[in-house]
Amino acid sequence: MLVVGVTEYEPMDYRDGDGNWVGFDADLAKLTAERLGVKAEFVIINWEEKVDKLTAKDIDCVWNGYTVNDIDKVSFSDAYAKNSPVLVVRGDKADVIKATDDLDGLSVAYEKGSSSERIAEDLKCDFKKQPLSLQKEALDSVKNGEADACIVDKTIFDSLVHSDLVSVYTFESEKFAVGFRKGSDLTEEVNRILKELKSEGILDALADKYKVELT
Fold first, then answer.
1. Confidence band (pLDDT; 50, 70, 90) for 107?
2. Exposure pattern of 60-91 as b/e (b: 16+ CB <10 Å)?
3. Are 102 and 154 in a shared domain?
4. Residue 191: C-alpha distances to residues 9, 78, 196 (Å)
5. What span, in angstroms and rounded, lies between the C-alpha atoms of 141 and 149?
6. pLDDT at residue 160 above 90?
7. N or C, which end of the chain has less CB nearby within 10 Å?
8. What is the pLDDT of residues 186-202, one digit of tens each?
9. How many structural domains comprise the chain?
10. Is residue 124 located within the same domain as residue 60?
């Protein structure tokens, strides 16, 4: 069994109408587990606890649009996808909030433990921080008027329909990879399988299906 830590993050990991885990990362994890000779079991985690869950061996890996940024604590696979965090606001505020300099005195939502939180912490302006459990919650908080803006992955923003939300600023591009415990033998094995899937055109097919940009 390959125990995979995930959150609800469309188009990477989410459940279909029958409750099955699907998405770019979910499909990729299932294909990889099959080539390892095991099945993938998906376990919902709190994103801010992902490293602790790995260390405690509650899960074997984090396969959930994981930005390569915890390299001192996590053994990462080769990066396979790209993403750019974006600043999102309601359409009726797009004329006044166009960049991070316009956030002074406003409230900004983001997912706890994410790269968006790191971006928010590094911003020089004075704003009210609104950490939430999921990126979708951050988007909903802007939509409902509970926050003035949010920082989320472009990947999730592009995958959902937001007729009343707009992206007004794009941050530096990041890379996604699979996170394993330090010293895990799985890192090398998964890298081998990812190369196979890439050479066979399977990664490209998944990217086309879920509108994910590969590295």
1. very high
2. bbbbbbbbbbbeeebbbbbbbbebebbbbbbe
3. yes
4. 23, 6, 9
5. 8
6. no
7. N
8. 999 999 999 999 999 99
9. 2
10. no
Structure tokens belonging to residue 97: 């909030």
Say whether both 8 and 72 belong to one domain.
yes
Among 135, 150, 170, residue at a domain's last position: 170
94 and 159 fall within a common domain: yes
Kindly report, residue by residue over 108-153, the tens digit of the pLDDT.
999 999 999 999 999 989 999 999 999 999 999 999 999 999 999 9
Length of the chain: 215
- pLDDT (average), residues 59-74: 95
The two three-digit tokens of residue 183, written as one number: 């010293």
Q: Tokens 């919650």 appear where?
A: 137
Residue 168 pLDDT more than 90?
A: yes
Place of tokens 């941050």: 171
Query: Containing domain of residue 162, as a range?
Result: 85-170
Q: Is 211 left (phi over 0), alpha (psi -120 to 50) or beta?
A: left
Tokens 């499909």 label which residue? 27
Co-location of 47 and 102 in the same domain: no
HSE (side-chain half, CA atoms, 13 Å) at 119: 23
Residue owning tokens 């300099």: 101
Domain at 14, CATH number: 3.40.190.10
Higher pLDDT, 69 or 81: 81
Please indicate, yes or no, whether residues 131 and 60 belong to a single structural domain of this protein. no
Instruction: Report the distance separating Cα 76 and Cα 191, nearest Å.
Output: 9
